From TrEMBL:
This is Methionine adenosyltransferase 2 subunit beta. Regulatory subunit of S-adenosylmethionine synthetase 2, an enzyme that catalyzes the formation of S-adenosylmethionine from methionine and ATP. Regulates MAT2A catalytic activity by changing its kinetic properties, increasing its affinity for L-methionine. Can bind NADP (in vitro). It comes from Rotaria sordida. One of its GO terms (molecular function) is methionine adenosyltransferase regulator activity. Residues 1-273 form the RmlD-like substrate binding domain. Heterotrimer; composed of a catalytic MAT2A homodimer that binds one regulatory MAT2B chain. Heterohexamer; composed of a central, catalytic MAT2A homotetramer flanked on either side by a regulatory MAT2B chain. NADP binding increases the affinity for MAT2A.
Length: 301
């Protein structure tokens, strides 16, 4: 299997690169602004750019599109930029997939839902409440309607090993390691989601691609929690957790620019019915596994 992973320098894409290569697939991955030693340049906004990796000559069987502008508040105030980075970028990747005759995998989000009654399954009706969610939904629909062999994978609250350590779990760990002064972390107790390890997304995607699955799939672990619970769980593994005081607050007091779906998150019943022996990691599994390799800052069992 030959796969081109767009956004291979990012959180989800980097795990796809690693896992697919371990499994023996021929994989190329791309970066845009953050070059890595195992990715080539490819800009989805400039399909004709001469510096782009030559995807057509590579002749991928599958193109995995992980590129996105994921800063939800920034998208809210920069609607056109969000449209370009999410929708137009996806339109270009659809065109590229058609030229290559490749199947396409698009990564989407629970932000396509309004958060009234999550966690959601694939049959629930999307109704996004912010610009990022609207553009992700438009892009999903484009992919499903224009590429016959397409797969849309919805995920949320992704964490895991990451070069730039910018996901929520990695940031709390880093703050705890760097900070020697007490500080307060205000987090919403009313935003619920289903955190998932990027490594598991790559593993599940491998199964779905191998079996030529199509349509929409939700992926999640067994965790369903709010941000306060997630932060406290992470801190429970760290020694200097006393420096961080988690203050639970109502979302309305945070004045976040973009509205957030509150009861969000995803149900993976469809995936589990098709892959009953597939086991997802929990946040606890992940924290326990990385504690093994490091630090004086980590509590020992
Ligand atoms: N992380 C989450 O919690 C989460 C939740 C739900 C859905 N998702 C979706 O999952 C997908 C992957 O997210 P992620 O967390 O892995 O994001 P990420 O770590 O921010 O990675 C985004 C990737 O997109 C690349 N990129 C940005 N603009 C590009 C462009 N114009 N052309 C080509 N590549 C470009 C980036 O390259 P450079 O960094 O090299 O510029 C990076 O490799 C996205 O579609 C996102 O919407 C993520």
């Amino acid at each position: 299997m030959k796969v081109f992973v767009i956004g291979g320098s990012g959180l989800v894409g980097s795990h796809c690169l690693t896992y697919f290569r371990e499994k023996g697939w021929k994989v190329e991955g791309s970066h845009c602004n953050y070059a890595t030693d195992r990715t080539s340049y490819y800009n989805t906004l400039e399909p004709q750019n001469k510096n782009n990796f030559d995807v057509i000559s590579f002749r991928p069987d599958v193109i995995v599109h992980c590129a996105a502008l994921t800063n939800v508040d920034y998208c809210e105030t920069h609607e056109e930029e969000s449209y370009q980075h999410t929708f137009k970028s996806t339109e270009h990747v659809c065109e590229l997939s058609m030229i290559c005759g490749a199947r396409m995998v698009y990564i989407s989000t629970d932000y396509v839902f309004n958060g009234d009654h999550g966690p959601y399954n694939e049959n629930d009706i999307p109704n996004p409440i912010n610009i990022y969610g609207k553009h992700k939904l438009l892009s999903e629909q484009l992919v499903i309607n224009s590429i016959i062999d397409s797969l849309v994978i919805r995920v949320t609250n992704v964490y895991g090993d990451e070069a730039r350590a910018k996901n929520f779990v990695a940031r709390i760990i880093k703050q705890c390691q760097d900070n020697k002064q007490p500080f307060c972390l205000k987090l919403p107790y009313d935003q619920f989601a289903t955190p998932i390890n990027a490594y598991d997304i790559a593993r599940a995607m491998f199964c779905l691609i191998s079996d030529k699955k199509k349509g929409i799939y939700h992926l999640s672990s067994t965790d369903y929690m709010n941000r306060v619970e997630l932060a406290k769980k992470i801190l429970s593994y760290l020694n200097n957790d006393q420096f961080i005081n988690v203050e639970p607050v109502d979302s309305s007091t945070l004045k976040q620019i973009a509205k957030r779906p509150l009861l969000a998150g995803l149900l993976k019943v469809k995936f589990t019915n098709e892959y009953p022996t597939f086991v997802f990691n929990s946040v606890d599994n992940y924290l326990a596994s990385i504690r093994k390799y490091s630090f004086s800052e980590w509590k020992h069992p």
